[in-house]
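Researcher: Next sequence.
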Amino acid sequence: MTGEHCVFDAHGMLRRQKWTERAIFDDQHQIIEFQVVSHDMSERKQTGTAEPETALGLEEQLQQSQRLLLSLLDHSPSFVGIRDIEGRYMLCNQSYADLIGHRIEDIIGKTDHELIPEAIAQSLTANDALIISTGQAQKEEISVVLNAMERTFLLSKFPLRNEQGQIYAIGGIATEMTERKDIEKALTEANHQLTLWIKELEQYNREMTLLNWLSETLQQCQQVDQVYQAMQRIIRQLFEQFAVGLHMVDTGEQRYITVASWGDTVFVESHVCDICPALQQDDLLNQKQRALLCNNTFDNEQRRYLCVPVVAQGQAIGVLSMYGIPEKPVHERQHWERLAIMIVDQLSLTLTNLYLREQLHEQAIRDPLTGLFNRRYLNETLRRELSRAQRHQHPLSIMMLDIDHFKSYNDRYGHDGGDVLLQAMGDFLPQQTRKEDVACRFGGEEFTLILPGASLEDTIRRAEKLRADVCLLQVYHQGRPLDSITISLGIACFPLHGNTSEQLIRVADAALYRAKAAGRNRVMIANPYEREV
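Model: Next structure:
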């Protein structure tokens, strides 16, 4: 069997080929294979040596192949065009014609400069010149705006050569990638958003871990200084990009002092808490107004202080100020607000508990009328100080003192007048003692002073001064001055008069009664033998 057909070679040239097919048989006359032999007839056709009827068949096949090729191109989703080396279109498919908005018959014979925007035409022309000069196919991704919409194409261009190998045209096939690019862009954006969410989640986990650590640490704090140390660590780790200061009220000096800080000290110490709007609120516990932006700004970026009041028992006792938090975007500022409020809430709760614990402790060891330590605290302190004195071989003295004729004082001015006098003594005694001394109300109108490190001679001198100064005490009740008072004192010293708290109190009290029996308003020293009575 023989026949002829047309095919395109690797250079895009149409070639005519004649083929012969024959069967190969085995010994049993069974077909075991077919052999096809093909011969190139292009040169024979050009020289006219082929038979007429064969040439006619080839022309029909060529026309049929062209019709099939054009039909295939017109139904292809790709955009196909062939231009000569002058840039004039020789062929294009319907998809390309629809893309640039022209009919095929209006495109053939024209250049890109006559059909599409000049900027795109210049780019394509430059690419054509590169292909002609190098003889190499080119592939690139281009983005163009068509009908107010950006579209992306993958453009493949290649040279077409004649039988002599010369480039006579340039073919191009463009495949639209807009949808794929949109998907890639959406995936990129989704990946970016996912990355942001992961970072936010990591930050959230870190913040929650630090807040849990702060909560556990604050629960273990027994003193206010320990609380401030924990706050110093937490603000350093949570607000490392800001300048932060925790300012607390110093009740002694009636001003705010910085107890914990982080960042630029200029901004931390420049904040004037007395005028902070966060502290001027009527309702300091209002959740919507807990954190306020101060009007103070210190740089061209107009960043301001974000302040949260520290509230204990309904009173503002401090403020947490953070400098550098941007006012916008709002969600970022609100994040830092919530975090600061959570920290301040834990701080406020801890300080409130410590204050309540301190109040309960004070109530347990303080006399409610005079404010002096009570007898229970006296016994505990005296035993502790005696143990220290024995260990270091230091002296220790005590004074027992009693207001003379206190009963008649009560009779004359009433119990209210007597209470006023006892309160005055509660203010007077601490003023006459050293910081390490302990003033206690022993009971009724009787008081005790513990004097660590005081020798007997020092104690006698101080007792005489105390007896003289109390006569000058001015006490007023209901607007009237009360009569001056005198006191009687008994003193005892370790180790001369006793080695235990019970012995010292016993001999000092006995000396006090001897002073009262001797006429009052005098100082008596304990006798060593009285310790065994």
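Model: The chain has four domains: 2-69, 76-176, 196-364, 366-532. Confidence is low (pLDDT under 50) at residues 45-53.
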